[in-house]
């Protein structure tokens, strides 16, 4: 760590990363509660809070529990031990869950009914006619799939799968003189739709009921020799955070496959049950699942609100959703030239999802077929289920080209998908690398080596987001396409390092973690600090997903105290305290929660009037700077640099979707009264449409790289 004044390193100057993450979920929940947002978009946001919370427990809470079991006493960045963090997380999570269900029960259900969609919350509410319909549906479509399980001396308590929805019951034998109650259960099958639509009501109202309510209504048919005393849904979350001893693993792929199987049976870290659950039933669940009181969540509504994303997908409610947006063509490619010719004209900036991801896919597809292409090299972290990029890489290998692909098997919750892709690529003849021991490869880089009239030329794509054509429609990311010789040299060096541990003595343009990135960022922050102390203009703008690195934050505090203006756009975790007198009064932090997930990483340094702009794959987090292979790359073309600076400035001007971090650690939306409204994501959509239209009118299409910002504000 660089020499830093101790006053900037005190624990009270930092926010615990887990509590900061929960605040991010509260911001998403705020969108679900905002009545100015289309109703079905609110359903989507509420669903996202639920899926986020699941992953948070399976990974972050699980990791803290592992620390407690291991008697790990070291404190975090904010001076908290693992036990203290769990206690604070538990209290805040209960508040979050209560607010989730208050939003669902008190606001969304009534709003849905008003718009002609009724959710039947309990099967007891069904009319005789509807009851007959669901009973028939149960007999014909559900009953054949179910596996009822009883627990007695010959049948032990079943193994409950992680995240599965189940119905537990207390049953009593019919015609038995004994009053003994027995435990029984059935898993709600995930292979069937959870939302079941009932026949349309007389007034044209559409009505739905959840699958678990239909099963609960018909439990008597699953346990024919028993009376059902009580039945309630429950759901568990297990520890899904596994560690690998990569040094000892002879076959990383095989070892990860073994660990994936274990994930289903990790320690239970959360139990969700109906709030009105039978206390005797809860006692059995608590004992058999070995779960403590603080990890039990009584739910006043349907468990697992992620079903709302399926409801969002129901047809016939487009008027209750935000207008869909079609990613626009990239002006630089709107001509008859091939992709290689266009890149040779000059560097090209991509801004997704405002602009289409197609050029990235096309680069690999064209390279796979082009007889002049000799080699394709690419890193893959998370790809889509039917990835056209993977298909093109396989085709390239079959066409005899040298294809090297680094598939990161340790990409959490995508391990299985990536294993399947790795096998497919190997089968096609690609050289597949599984990453470096002890490091995740998180950088996004593609290299195409092509033989041309004037010799070998290297085409490079560098990105802030994954090579995933599906998420590219939902995540905001930036990319750069270039054939700059120095970047091409660096790209070759990156892949040689990944495949053969050969590190070049010097790098031209690319800045890599874990080698140089941390020191470079610290150096650039301190350069601004020095400028400010000299009385010169000093300014930092940075956009990222998370900020929790202690050294970086301490350097930002030091810069703030020296007078550097620091404007940050941090989507999620932020361990920095903003606007604190004597510490960070020159720092502002914006968090934007909109229809697209903010994902790009962009960094601007004033540099005494010669601004430097970088983009990359890394957040300012210890794991990105020290434990992953990451790439930060400069944007040097003057026109493209202005475009990237414009992206930062518009986000900082957003006064509709932005939340501002307060000195006390809370986030508040901006008071919009009397102001011209700026919604960054909407403005970027409008600009992309305008740029594409302007490009159509141009004779020389590539001249459309001259950038004119929208004047909407």
In the CATH hierarchy, the third-tier topology of the largest domain is known as Endonuclease, Chain A
Class based on secondary structure composition and strand pairing: alpha/beta
Q: Report the sheet-strand fraction.
A: 15-25%
How many distinct helices?
A: 18
Total domain units:
4
Going by CATH, what is the homologous superfamily of the largest domain? Endonuclease Chain A
CATH architecture tag of the largest domain = 2-Layer Sandwich
Summarize the SSE layout with pairings.
Blueprint: H1 17-33, H2 39-69, H3 82-114, E1 117-120, H4 128-142, E2 149-151, E3 165-173, E4 182-187, E5 195-197, E6 206-210, H5 211-217, E7 226-238, H6 252-263, E8 268-274, H7 279-289, E9 296-299, H8 307-312, H9 339-345, E10 348-352, H10 358-369, E11 373-380, H11 388-398, E12 402-407, H12 415-428, E13 431-433, E14 440-441, E15 444-452, E16 455-463, E17 475-482, H13 485-500, E18 511-513, H14 517-533, E19 539-544, H15 550-562, E20 565-570, E21 587-592, E22 597-598, E23 601-605, E24 612-616, H16 622-626, E25 628-634, H17 638-653, E26 658-661, E27 667-669, H18 680-697
Parallel strand pairs: 1-6, 8-9, 11-12, 12-13, 14-25, 17-22, 19-20, 20-21
Antiparallel strand pairs: 2-4, 3-4, 3-7, 5-6, 7-8, 10-17, 11-15, 15-16, 16-17, 18-25, 19-23, 21-26, 23-24, 24-25, 26-27
Walk me through the structure.
This protein is of the alpha/beta class and about 725 residues long. It has four domains: about 5-120 and about 305-325, Methane Monooxygenase Hydroxylase, Chain G, domain 1, CATH 1.20.58.310; about 145-300, polyphosphate kinase like, CATH 3.30.1840.10; about 335-510, Endonuclease, Chain A, CATH 3.30.870.10; about 515-670, Endonuclease Chain A (Endonuclease, Chain A), CATH 3.30.870.10. Helices cover about 35% and strands about 20% of the residues. Strands 14, 18, 19, 20, 21, 23, 24, 25, 26 and 27 form a ten-stranded mixed beta sheet that branches. Strands 10, 11, 12, 13, 15, 16, 17 and 22 form an eight-stranded mixed beta sheet that branches. A hairpin with a 2-residue loop joins strand 15 (about 445-450) and strand 16 (about 455-465).
